[in-house]
Specification:
heterodimer, A: about 500 residues, six-stranded mixed sheet, transmembrane (chain B), ABC_transp_permease (chain B)
Amino acid sequence: MKLELRGITKRFGALTANDHIDLTVEPGEIHALLGENGAGKSTLMNVLYGLYQADEGEIVLDEVVQHFAGPGDAMNAGIGMVHQHFMLIPVFTVAENVMLGHEQTGFAGQLDLVAARKVVREISNRFGFHVDPDALVGDLPVGVQQRVEIIKALSRDARVLVFDEPTAVLTPQETDELMAIMRQLKESGTSIVFITHKLREVREVADRITVIRLGKVVGEASPTATNAELASLMVGRAVELTVQKDPAKPGAAALVVDNLSVIDPRGQVVVRDVSFDVKAGEILAIAGVQGNGQTELTEALMGLQDRVTGEITLDGKTLRGLSVRKVLNSGVGFVPEDRKEDGLVGEFTIAENLMLDRADGSPFVKGGGLQLSFLNTFAEEKSKEFDVRSQGIQTEVGRLSGGNQQKVVLARELSRTLRLFVAAQPTRGIDVGSIEFVHKRIVATRDEGIPVIVVSTELDEVVALADRIAVMYRGGIVGIVPGDTPRDVLGLMMAGEVPAGVLPADPEGAAA
Amino acid sequence: MSDSPVTPGSQAPVTPASSAAASGSPASGSPASGPAVEPPSRWRKAFNEIIGGSVMISVLAVVLAIVAGGILIAVTDENVQKAAGYFFARPGDTFAEIWKSVSGAYVALFQGAVFNPKRPEFVDQIKPITETLTFATPLIAAGLGVGLAFRVGMFNIGGRGQMLIAAACAGWVGFTLHLPWGIHLVVAILAGVIGGGIWGGIAGLLKARTGAHEVIVTIMLNYVAFYLVSYLLRTPVLQAPGSNNPKSPPIDATAVLPDLLGPQFNLHLGFIIVIAATVFVWWLLNRSSLGFKFRAVGLNPNAARVAGIDVKNMYVYAMLISGALVGLAGVFQVLGTVTTGFSSGIDAGIGFDAITVALLGRSKPWGIFVAGILFGAFKAGGFAMQASQGIPIDIVLVVQSLIVLFIAAPPLVRAVFRLPDPANPKKPKAPKTPKPAVETREAVAAK
């Protein structure tokens, strides 16, 4: 099926999210839609899927102009979407999830599960998915859940499939398998729109690439374009993809974590017997697929977890069992992975957020009262230093872009006297320009001789920043390897395998 | 691929976001650790919008409620009903009657609440406004307490219990201890404030230590306080000697709040105290370290926790101060309004009206002050309206309730007045911009 978007314009008040976007997807083509976060990719796809109504322009399928009042219309017209966050019900089986929304019923409203199972089997056989129709979705690995989403779309005769950032939650191996599936779908004549901001994936599978910036199509590229060319199209200027850094000059071990385990409120062991150390002046990156215990590990370091065993010492003093307040007071800077939920108060101004974790004493508080004039001078100074772009320090943080929000968090944490810096997913969901800035500041912090922990699920970021890499899998550390370890080795480790020769090469690998 | 197992860390591998959110508040469903239970963020968002919406919505909600009240007055008026019987013969009569009943009612409300030019002497003419301020005094105090709890993300429905305990404490000091003038009053006020504070603090402590929801706890503490005070009013502790009624002896003259404008007005020193309390709450919320932490906890408890703020302690402190402020209202009742001895109905529903006042005032100290005066005016004027026009005072209650209803549904108010949605600002501007371009093009074509 041929999909054409002609002059799609979508405005939200003064903001034009999509400005006369033209896009043509030929039958059996993988068309990559590349752009930074906030470039308007998701808005465009929501227009296509009937979730938003376009202010101008039209959607044409096989030369027929379509009018979608909702996702139902779009599905009936043959458009399917695989969302970034799967729209599946974990306690339902695969077959039940697939039939959800267009249930076939027999006598007295009885569900026709037999038919649904048949559909699942048929589609998974056609593409070699190996999905059991009776498995509970909640028990399936993330990669398989994504296949269930694909089956769901295909079961409704989708001829155009939209993948919205499908690789964000996958391991490198799962990503490769997804690529293979996409090629297979393409051969069967399905048109695919592949939304992403990861350049390597695009070059691997896409037939054509359309780059969107600030709601406009800024160019088309062929898959042979280099990463640098694509990145500069995305941000409108040349971007440094690698982080410039000198070799680390590690000092003595500053943070020592010994046999640390964390039990979550449900009684599950989420961090299992983890041991590592971080030396002054080095960056230890903690890599791994989302949800393998990294979050809980950083929370345990910060005193945010209740049931922690083992030992954490920073410069010889224990951190375990201290309150968050005391951990912060002992000089730990922390960038939480979910800045909107845990890092910032969205309704507070930039200035107020800059003193959020120092609301107890000098210099921001004297005699129980806030020192507002000092705070304002401080905030002006820091927003200049950290290049926070806003209409002023009294702007609500919730109104800033992700990148600027993250700069506020960084400014707050890095303006204290630090003895350890922990940054969890420091560049998640922020624009390329801000990523560059954040990376530079992290390296600068290291060069001041501060031990740094960077937790990231993005392999690119890990490789760019790390002096050493610890890979986590199922709550444990698979191994700690040097920063120049090849990606395929890291990928295997992220899936829980220990490649031969990794551990002997690493003197610190006491964990696994 | 097929051997890649379930990720153990994420409780719900379906949506990676949910695991992040869940780890942010590990509380949910854990009886053992029992940290503060965070309500889901959607509820918190709605909560924040209801308690923190714009001033404009508040004003318009009042306008809408008054209009709706007017319709009710018209519909229930006998003369209007009679005239409507021959509406198609002489429709003018119906409209005249409607005008007469509605305007009569609201004029009476105004004359009862602000200024009555019909009375002969100036002192009598301005008496209504002092009555309004007298009614407003406890409403503002209790409203400040409820509003403060709102700002920390808590619903203090325990105003009744806190007022009763405060009134009992202040009253007991007022008629039992016989202290010199001045000191007696101060001790009585302090006793009441501390009593209310402790009653509120219990709710805060239970929330912080056990995760019990403050709405349930405060409602239940209302009953505990009511029956406790009712019981004490039948024992020598609070009951007037030689009486069989559950009523306390009168307050000593030394413990009564002095009149501000002389004996012909009811307005007492409590009004000055409540102005001071408003200034204090403003300072606390906007200028103090504690208030900064309060607001942070109220807006985003997760971020506050990560920033090293002890969220549980903030809940306890906030409920202590909230209860103390509500207790101040109980003190005003017993030492200012009803000084001849009190019964278990001394709270007069102020603890619940305070919720409305705090909502209407958008939980901001000066907003609550203004809202409290408006509600005081409704109370003072409602009696006048009933006396002079025969309109049941229930209409005023309906108007008050409608105000809450409209405030709780900002989209409804916005729809009625065609206001833009603040979450989606400047929307009406967008379609305007292309217009001039079209016009000029047409103008060019015409040439």
